[in-house]
Amino acid sequence: MNEQLKFPAGTAFGSIGHPIRRKEDARLLTGKGRYTDDFNLEGQTYAAMVRSPHPHARIVRIDTAAAKAMKGVLLVLTGEDCKADALKPIPHSPVPSTHFDMKLTAKGGKPVFAGRHALLPADKVRHVGEPVAAVIAATRAQAMDAAEAVAVEYEELPYTVLTDDALAPGRAPLWDEAPDNVLVDCWFGDREKTDLAFAKAAHVVKSTFNIGRVTAVTMELRSALGDYDNATGRHTLYCGGGGAVKQKAEIAGILGLPPDKVRVLSYDIGGNFGSRNRPYVEYGIVVWAAGKLKRPVKYTATRSEAFLTDYQGRDLITTVEAAFDQGGRILAMRADNVSNVGSHCVSLSPLSKGSGLITGSYDIPAATLRSRAVFTNTMPTNAYRSSGRPEVTFAIERLMDMAADQIGMDRVKLRRKNLVRPKAMPYRNAVGMLYDSGTYEANMDLAMEIADVEGFKQRKREAKKRGRLLGLGISNYVESSIGAPKERTEITVKPDGSVDVVIGTQPSGQGHETSFAQVVADLIAVPVQAINVIIGDTDIVSVGGGSHSGRSMRHAGTVIVKAVPELIGKGQKIAALALGIDAGKIEFKDGRFSSQASNRSFDFLELAKEAERLAMPANLQGGLAVACDNEMHEPVFPNGCAICEIEIDPDTGLPTITRYAAVDDVGRCINPLIVHGQTHGGIAQGVGQAMWEQCYVDPSSGQPLTGSFMDYGMPHAHTLPSFKAEIVEVLSPTNPLGIKAGGEGGTTPALAVIVSAIVDALKDYGIRDFTMPATPYAIWQAIQQAKATTSGTGTDKR
Fold first, then answer.
1. Contact partners, residue 437, CB within 8 Å, separation at least 6
2. Which among 161, 278, 171 has a CA at the least distance from the CA of 700?
3. Average pLDDT for residues 112-117, to the nearest whole number?
4. Which has the closest alpha carbon to 247: 232, 226, 217, 231?
5. Are 639 and 440 in contact (CB under 8 A)?
6. CA distances in angstroms from 784 to 11, 258, 342, 710, 755, listed in the order given
7. Starting from the edge strand earliest in sequence, which strands make up the sheet with 486-493, in order?
8. N or C: which end of the chain has fewer CB within 10 A?
9. How far, in Å, are 399, 680, 782 from residue 772 at the CA level?
10. What per-residue confidence (pLDDT) applies to 409?
C-alpha cells in the first residue's frame, strides 16, 4: 500500500487497486434492476406532451376542449395553469459555485440572467419540441391521442439557431432581459502581458474551431413517475438523475413546498453522462399533476422525443491563437470561447470548466480569454461527459499540430518542448487553475510506446501499397474534476454480518456498489461482498452531491476515510464492554479489536454480533454506526495522452480506426477493471462525436433534422479497434486517497486525436483541418475539393 495513502491506523488490507468484478452486474444483467420505468403504482395514469413545432413563436391561444372531452382524459395542463398554481421556474442555478470554478458573469461583472425555465410556458415557445401542454389520461394511448387534439394557435417569430448568428447585431431576442442574446461575457488572464508576448513572437498560429452538438443517447429513455399521499400531503418522484438530494430540492422549489414534503427515489440509471444532472420539465409536471389528480402520473419519452428534447452537449465556437519564439517555445495564447446554451441556460459548467483549461497540458506563461454564452432557439445544452474539456483540448491540440506544420518542427518535439514539467507541480496556469500533479511527458512517451509509433512509417508504406492513406493522431490532455463540494456517508455494521453504507452520489453505470465497497472493505477489514451501498432514496440519503465532474469516487472515498476513525473508536468502546476492560486498552490492528488483557478478539462483523447481547450505555445506543459529513472544494486534474491510427480509402472516404492507445493518470485507481471499462466507454463516446454524431438543426427552418437513429450516427463495436490502455497513478495531494478521476479521460482527447489522424492521412492533399463529424462522405468531399484545387499544379504527392 502506497505510503501516501493516509488510512487510519490499523487499516488498509489490500482490496484497493484490485480488479474486482462488479457486484451490481448480476442484478442488472438478470432483469433485477430498478430503473424508473420499472416502477408502476396502483391507479397509475399517463402523461403525454403537446410540443411546439416552431423554434420561436408567441402562444396566442390553446384550445383544450376537444382533448378534455376524449375518452380516458383526466386533466389537461397549460402554462396558464402553472401561473394559476404559482409554480416557479426550474431552479437550475447554472453558474458553478465551488471556490475554484471560473467565475462567469454577464458583461461588466453583472449577474448572469439564465432565462426562466417554466414547466409549461405561458408567453412563447423558444425551441422546437418545447412542451406547451400536458395531457393526463387513464392509458398512454389515450393520452397520446388526446395530445393530438389540443389546438394551439401560434404567432411565429424570427429565430436564431447558430452560435455565430446569435452574435450578429439585430437578431430577435429570446428574452427581454438579454436583448443581444448574450448572457455571459467576461475576460480572464493578463491582457497586457499577453499582448507584449505576441508583439515579440517569431511565429503566430491562429484558427477557429466549431465543435458541434451531440446528444447522450442513453440506453434508458428518460422517465418520471409522480405520486401524492393525500393523508400526509407529501409528493414522491421516481426518476433517474444525477443526484436524488439535489432533485428533491429542485422539485420542492418548483412547487413552493418545504423539502420534507418531497421524496425522490432514484436508483438504477441507464446512462447519464451529464444529460440528466439537471431536471426536465416532465419531472415537475408529473409531480404537480399527481397532486392535482390524487393519483400517480407517469411519463416515459419515446426515442424521437429524446432526440428532440434531451439536454444536448458541446456546441462551442472557439478562436485560438498562440505566439511562439524562434525555437518553438510558446510565449502566450489568446482564446475567444462562445458557448451556445440554447433556449434556457441549464448549466454553464461546460463554458466554466473549459475556460480554466484553455492552455491544456502546456506551460504557457501568458494567456487572455474571453468567455461568452449565447441564447439560441435550440434545445438547452448541459454538461456532457467531460463537460467543456474535450472542446478546449481539441482547440489547443489541433493548434499544436498546425503550429508544428507552420514552424516546420516535428509535432511530438514541439509538444515535448512545451509540456508542463513534473517539478513545476503544483502548477498554476495562465488563467488561474492550479494543476495538482502529473507527469505529462512520461504519459506521452508511454502512449507512443504502447501505440508502437516507431512502426508507423512501415505501416503507412504497407497501406499505400493497398491504395490506402494511413494517418497518425496524437493528443495530450488535462482535465479538471471539481463537482458539488458536500458529501455525507452513514456506515452501519449490522449483527447479520453485513455493512450498510449510505452515500449521496448517484451511479449510472460507474460501478459505485463495488468500488465504494472496496474502500470500506480495506478500512474496516470486512469482505467486499458484505457491504451494501445504499443510494437514491432521499428518506435515507439526506446529503450528497450526486455524480458529475468525476467527483464520485474522490468525494465518497474521502468522506468514508474521514468517517472510519470514529467507527473504530466506537468499536473500541464496545469491545471494551464485551471484554470488561478499559477502552483505552483496546487496539484495532490488522482488522481486529484486541487487548493484551484478554485472549479474545473481534473483527467488525463479530463485534456487531457480540454487541447485540450487551447492555449499551446511552452514547453507544446506535451500535457500530457513524455518520460523517465532508466539504471539499479543491479540484484535481486527471491527465494523459491518446494516440490513434486511421486508414482512409480515398475512393470512398471511408475511415477505419486501426489502432488506438490511451494513457490516463487517474490518481489512485481503486478498481482498474472498472477504470479500464470507463476508459473504453469514454473513448467510444468521444470517437462517436468525431466521426458520426451530430445534432443538426436546419438554419433555414429552425427544424432539428436528427430525430432518430436513421439520422444520427453512433459508434458500434465493429467500428472500433481493440484499445490499448494503461493507467498511471500519480497521487493527488488534495485528498486522503490521492484520487483524481477515471470516468472522463477517455473522452477528453478523443475528438482531437481522431481529427489529428485524419488530417495527417490527408496532408498530401493540402488538407490542414477538418470539421467534425468526419463521415465518409465529408472526407470524400474534402478529397474531391482538394483535387479540384490542386489539379494541374503537381501538389498531389500521393
1. 422, 425, 426, 637, 667, 730, 731, 732, 733
2. 161
3. 97
4. 226
5. yes
6. 65, 63, 35, 26, 18
7. 531-534, 499-503, 486-493, 625-631
8. C
9. 16, 21, 12
10. 97
pLDDT tens digits, 450-503:
999 999 999 999 999 999 999 999 999 999 998 888 999 999 999 999 999 999
Distances 466 to 244, 463, 629, 765, 777 between C-alpha atoms, Å: 55, 5, 62, 18, 21
Nearest to 185 by CA among 97, 109, 92: 109
Q: Is the pLDDT of residue 2 over 50?
A: no
Instruction: State residue 30's pLDDT score.
Output: 93
Q: Where are the beta strands (DSSP E) in 19-112?
A: 45-51, 57-63, 73-78
Place of cell 439520422: 711
Q: What is the DSSP string of 67-78?
A: HHTSTTEEEEEE
Name the amino acid, one letter, at 606.
Answer: E
Q: ∠ CA 365-371-377 to the nearest 5 degrees?
A: 155
Nearest to 396 by CA among 315, 332, 480, 322: 322
User: Rounded to an integer, what is the distance from CA 625 to the centroid of its chain?
Assistant: 33
One-letter amino acid identity for 647?
E
pLDDT mean over 370-394: 97
User: What is the spatial distance between Cα 257 and Cα 260, in angstroms, rounded to a whole number?
Assistant: 8
3-state secondary structure 207-275: EEEEEEEEECCCCCCCEEEEEEECCCCEEEEEECCCCHHHHHHHHHHHHCCCHHHEEEECCCCCCCCCC
Nearest to 692 by CA among 710, 676, 667, 704: 710
Q: How far apart are CA 569 and CA 395, in angstroms?
A: 52
Burial of 227 by CB count in 10 Å (0-12 exposed, 13-18 middle, 19+ buried)?
buried
**C-alpha to C-alpha distance for 395 and 389, rounded to whole angstroms:** 10
* CA pair distance 266, 537, nearest whole angstrom: 6
Burial zone of 114 (CB within 10 Å; 0-12 exposed, 13-18 middle, 19+ buried): buried
CB atoms within 10 A of CB 618: 5
Whole-angstrom distance, CA of residue 348 vs CA of residue 112: 10
Separation of alpha carbons 324 and 409, rounded Å: 12
For residue 405, CA distances in Å to 2, 362, 413, 576, 769 come to: 43, 18, 12, 72, 12
Q: Which set of grid coordinates corresponds to residue 753?
A: 486525436
How far apart (Å, rounded) are the C-alpha atoms in residues 755 and 474? 9
End-to-end CA distance of the chain: 54
CA dihedral 460, 756, 679, 742 (to 10 degrees): 140
Q: Kindly report the number of other CB atoms within 10 A of residue 86's CB atom.
A: 8
For residue 334, count other CB atoms closer than 10 A to its CB: 23
Alpha carbon distances (Å) from 118 to 36, 57, 77, 88, 695 = 23, 16, 13, 7, 24
Burial label for 454, CB within 10 Å (0-12, 13-18, 19+), is exposed
Interacting residues of 794 by C-beta distance below 8 A, sequence separation 6+ = none
CB burial of residue 350 (10 Å; 0-12, 13-18, 19+): buried
Q: Which distant-in-sequence residues (6+ apart) come within 8 Å of 233 by Cβ?
A: 261
β-strand pairing of 297-300 with 223-229 = antiparallel
Give the residue among 577, 567, 576 at the shortest CA–CA distance from 605.
567
Question: Looking up cell 440509471, which residue turns up?
Answer: 269
Query: Is there a contact between 427 and 363 (Cβ–Cβ < 8 Å)?
Result: yes
Residue 606 sits at φ, ψ, to 5 deg, of -65, -40
Contact 362, 417 (CB under 8 A): no
Could you read off the pLDDT of 746-783 as tens digits, one per residue?
999 999 999 999 999 999 999 999 999 999 999 999 99
Cell of 398: 489541433
- Would you say residue 282 has pLDDT above 80? yes
User: In terms of residues, how long is the chain?
Assistant: 798
Write the DSSP assignment of 119-157 as a string of letters. SS-SSEE-STT-EEEEEEESSHHHHHHHHHH-EEEEEE-
